[in-house]
Specification:
Elements (H helix, E strand, L loop, with lengths): L4 E6 L2 E6 L1 H5 L8 H13 L4 H10 L9 E4 L3 E5 H20 L13 E4 L14 H26 L3 E3 L7 H9 L3 E6 L2 E6 L1 E4 L13 E4 L2 H8 L4 E4 L3 E7 L8 H12 L8 E5 L8 H9 L1 H4 L10 H9 L4 H13 L14 E6 L6 E3 L7 E3 L3 H5 L20 E6 L2 H4 L2 H16 L9 E4 L5 H8 L3 H6 L21 H6 L6 E4 L16 E3 L2 H10 L12 E2 L5 E2 L1 H4 L3 H11 L3 H11 L2 H5 L32 E10 L6 H4 L10 H8 L17 H7 L18 E3 L6 E3 H11 L3 E5 L11 H8 L2 E6 L4 H9 L3 E5 L3 H4 L6 E6 L12 E4 L5 E4 L1 E3 L4 H9 L2 H12 L1
Parallel strand pairs: 4-5, 4-9, 5-6, 9-10, 12-13, 12-14, 17-18, 17-19, 19-20, 23-26, 26-27, 27-28
Antiparallel strand pairs: 1-2, 3-11, 7-8, 15-16, 21-22, 23-29, 24-25, 28-32, 29-30, 30-31
Helix pairs in contact: 2-3, 4-5, 4-7, 4-32, 8-9, 15-19, 15-21, 25-26, 28-29
Length: about 850
């Protein structure tokens, strides 16, 4: 099949297009929109392989599943500062290794545009005062100046890398409001082409952009590095689960409630390495803002995507955010011509279909420990009960007790990117303020929107002052509490921590134990207005929908119904608040940051490493490597884990505790133990990250559950040692090590340090009941073999001294192949275990044989030189 090309005229300009209708014929309308975009991509980019890849996509229609591989070449890459930091450190290390091997370091240069946001390290150090944002930004720049200078070096040394300075907002909001084109135009060999806007992002919530019809998903930094250097994303023709939406949301139900409901429903099915697409008449009732909130939760419901096709709502959003009319015309003309325009009556072929009546969605929360654990908003008391002691004393008068709200944060791209949700929170705050309500002093309140446009919107609506009056002043534009940068708790909560179980209530996307704050093991996800309501109540020990949440100045009981804004009130305030011109103006002002402009940076093609630096250190794995970790060997289990071990558990992002192994290392390097910054900001220093592995307070090593988190029993000596020290000892003894885990290992954030750290421990394989997609890919990127076990670690009863014989012959390993594993007990006896390689493509096999993505890239660069 030769590529079917055609022309398209839009706005008086002529474009070349890969003609989907000609290539697929009548089958085009049966394909999911995701497959239509993938088909266009292979037709335009796959060269001689295009006919085979296109035929594989069309053949998928027969069964709704396929084992065939296709290449995908995105149009751009999106990163944030704490994933781009490690990636850029890797690239700097690779350039040094290439130069030392006699190669030209300039050969390692991105071949497609890379946008970097600076959003993940801002902390809520100051809140509830008028100058909180200024003071937090001063701390941000003071702590991270060295890291930001390194990022500026990258913009000078590498072509196509653009860094958006601190204060520009969260990457996914930036992508929605400013970067995404939906349909892209580019010149190739002097010819103007039009094509779908596609990207990959080094953050698991990259699919938020699916809400406006852009196909994108999250990958680890390692996979992004390979794409930057021209390697395609190799993937099986994906299964696509269709979610058919009918009806419409009831009054009072918000996009957050829908997102939590979708997350709950879809977590019931296996979505590993599968995509999700929404269809049906209910889709047309949802705004682009509603859709983006749902799509953002794709990693929480376990899918690669949460795709909504292009329609009139997409155009309405683009127009409302100030995009040019010519671009809107191109989007519509292209989508209609290519069969990418949404038809609410269409029923494409899907691998599996899920039905959801929007009218069944209720006001909801999720928690107290996982985002898929949706509950009615009224049910916080029974949800929290299993975590509470059997008996607890009443707190002293005026002091917080169990269930006290320690953190109430309107945070994250998930909900603050939808102006309607911010307006709803502001209207609730206005009514509460007029009634004289205030949160108790123990509640730490904050508002951290996804972009600087939010301030303009709230000011135009006259609502920012009302939010500030309740403590929800803007503390900065970044991920803050959602990523764990919630800053110190209030003194009242700190005093009470030894006797109570406090909670967080946030408008974010994750509530894993210890994620929001190392001392908080319970949290509830909520819409922004519900965050304000729980802050006013001060605790979750009530039915928030029915019970009083406070008293007015006159002493009257106030309930949520007295405060909750109607849909008409929200729509009226929003209509008065939104001005399309605000978007470009707000971003232009943020991009013109004088603080960023003043930062000096090296201008050499090779980065000048500083051995005294505690932020940027040349990583030992950013070189040609020692060869494959595959093979036939017997290994000690280094750590044995249960279910739902997240990347937060593996590699923390939040504040570095003053009494931790990482703190000891930094203090020895001369750092102030009282202000060590967050792990996320130290990801360019492998020594720090190595010492933080598995130190989350809720991690239990089943080899010896009583030992501290982040430690293990060394089999030879019987000593309890920090993991990194035990790994060093095993390496000195020439003893391989593996990790054993339960279901959903590696769920959560995309952070590649969860795999890099494991590789630095010398781990050759991770054996788990199930893997989350991005972490599985990251392990492979580091040369570590993921193996799916058929039995739970708790059933195996592994003990120190037990060893696992693994037969992973690099010459025989194939995607999804059986890998023999034999358990050798320290007490004698053996047991055969069933295991399969969690490897999906032949490219992943090539990466494992090379010892990881970085050695493979370097060998190709040397070969090309």
């Amino acid at each position: 099949m030769a590529m079917a090309a055609a022309s398209l005229t839009s706005g008086g300009r002529r474009y070349r297009i890969a003609d989907l209708r000609d290539a697929a014929g009548a089958d085009l309308d049966r394909l999911p929109h995701i497959h239509r975009i993938l088909l266009e991509n292979v037709l335009r980019n796959a060269g001689e392989d295009a006919p085979r890849a296109a035929a594989a996509i069309l053949a998928w229609l027969g069964t709704g599943s396929s084992g065939e591989e296709i290449p995908f070449l995105p149009g751009r890459v999106l990163m944030h500062d704490t994933t781009c930091g490690p990636a850029l450190v890797d690239i700097a290390g690779m350039r040094s290794a290439l130069a030392e091997a006699g190669g030209d370091p300039r050969r390692l240069n991105p071949v497609l545009p890379v946008d970097v946001s600076t959003d993940h390290s801002l902390a809520v150090d100051v809140f509830g005062v008028p100058d909180a944002m200024r003071r937090n930004m001063e701390r941000e720049l003071g702590r991270n100046a060295e890291r930001y200078r390194f990022m500026k070096w990258a913009t000078k040394a590498l072509s196509g890398v653009r860094v958006h300075p601190p204060g520009t907002g969260i990457m996914h909001t930036l992508n929605l409001e400013r970067l995404a084109t939906v349909v892209a135009a580019a010149e190739r060999d002097g010819v103007a082409w039009a094509m779908p806007d596609t990207l990959i992002g080094t953050d698991s919530h990259t699919p938020m952009i699916n809400g406006i019809g852009v196909l994108a998903w999250g990958v680890g930094g390692l996979e992004a590095e390979s794409v930057c250097f021209g390697m395609p994303v190799m993937m099986r023709v994906p299964d696509v689960v269709g979610v058919r939406l009918t009806g419409r949301l009831k009054p009072g139900v918000l996009a957050t409630d829908l997102a939590l409901t979708v997350t709950e429903r879809l977590r019931r099915i296996d979505l590993a390495d599968r995509f999700v697409e929404f269809f049906g008449p209910g889709v047309s009732t949802l705004s682009a803002g509603d859709r983006a909130v749902v799509a953002n939760m794709a990693p929480e419901f376990g899918g690669n995507s949460g795709h909504f096709p292009i329609d009139a709502q997409t155009l309405r959003y683009l127009r409302g955010t100030g995009r040019a009319e010519a671009q809107l015309q191109l989007v519509e003309d292209y989508a209609r011509r290519q069969g990418l325009w949404f038809d609410p009556a269409a029923t494409p072929r899907y691998s599996e279909t899920v039905e959801l009546d929007l009218g069944d969605v209720e006001v909801s929360l999720a928690g107290p420990r996982r985002p898929q654990d949706r509950i009615p908003a009224s049910a916080t008391v029974p949800a929290l009960a299993p975590l509470l002691p059997a008996q607890s004393a009443a707190p002293p008068a005026g002091e917080p007790g169990d269930g006290a709200v320690a953190v109430a944060a309107i945070t994250s791209c998930t909900n603050t990117s939808d102006p309607r949700l911010l307006i709803a929170a502001g209207l609730l705050a206005r009514k509460a303020r007029r009634l004289g309500l205030r949160p108790p002093a123990w509640v730490k309140t904050s508002l951290a929107p996804g972009s600087p446009t939010a301030e303009r919107t709230l000011c135009r609506a006259g609502l920012l002052e009302d939010l500030e009056a309740l403590g929800f002043g803007i503390v900065g534009y970044g991920c803050t509490t959602c990523i764990g940068n919630s800053g110190p708790l209030t003194p009242a909560i700190e005093r009470a921590m030894a006797r109570i179980l406090p909670v967080a209530v946030l408008s974010g996307n994750r509530n894993f134990p210890g994620r929001v704050h190392p001392q908080l093991e319970a949290g509830f996800l909520a819409s922004p207005p519900l965050v304000v309501a729980f802050a006013l109540a001060g605790d979750v020990n009530r039915d928030i929908l029915a019970d009083p949440i406070g008293r007015s100045a006159s002493g009257a009981e106030i309930r949520l119904a007295d405060l909750w804004p109607t849909g008409a009130e929200i729509d009226a305030a929003l209509a008065a608040a939104v001005d399309p011109a605000d978007y470009a103006a707000a971003y232009d002002r943020a991009e013109a940051s004088e603080d960023w402009a003043r930062l000096d940076a090296p201008e050499s093609p090779l980065f000048p490493w500083d051995e005294a630096s505690t932020y940027i250190r040349r990583p030992p794995f950013a070189g040609f490597g020692a060869g494959t970790r595959l093979g036939v060997y017997r290994a000690h289990p280094l750590i044995v884990l249960g279910d739902d071990i997240t990347t937060d558990h593996i590699s923390p992002a939040g504040q570095i505790p003053a009494d931790s192994e990482a703190a000891e290392h930094l203090a020895a390097c001369g750092e102030d133990r009282r202000d060590l910054n967050v792990f996320a900001a130290r990801r360019g220093n492998w020594q720090v990250m190595l010492r933080g592995l598995f130190t989350n307070r809720s991690v239990r090593n089943l080899l010896a559950p009583g030992i501290p988190p982040g430690s293990t029993i060394h089999a030879g000596s019987g000593e309890a040692l920090p993991l990194w020290r035990a790994a060093e000892r095993y390496a000195e003894e020439g003893e391989p090590v593996v990790i054993v885990a339960g279901e959903r290992y590696g769920m959560g954030s995309s952070r590649d340090w969860a795999a890099k750290g494991v590789a630095l421990l010398g781990v050759r394989a991770v054996l788990a009941l199930g893997f989350e997609r991005i972490h599985r890919s990251n392990l492979i990127g580091m040369g570590v073999l993921p193996l799916r076990l058929a039995r739970h670690p708790a059933e195996l009863g592994l003990m120190p001294g037990d060893r696992m014989a693994i037969e992973a012959d690099p010459d025989r390993l194939a995607p999804r192949a059986t890998v023999p594993v034999t358990l050798h007990r320290a007490t004698g006896g053996t047991e055969a275990l069933q295991a399969a390689a969690a490897v999906e493509t032949t490219l992943e096999i090539e990466i494992l044989r090379a010892g990881g993505i970085i050695p493979l890239i370097l060998r190709r660069a040397i070969g090309a030189g």
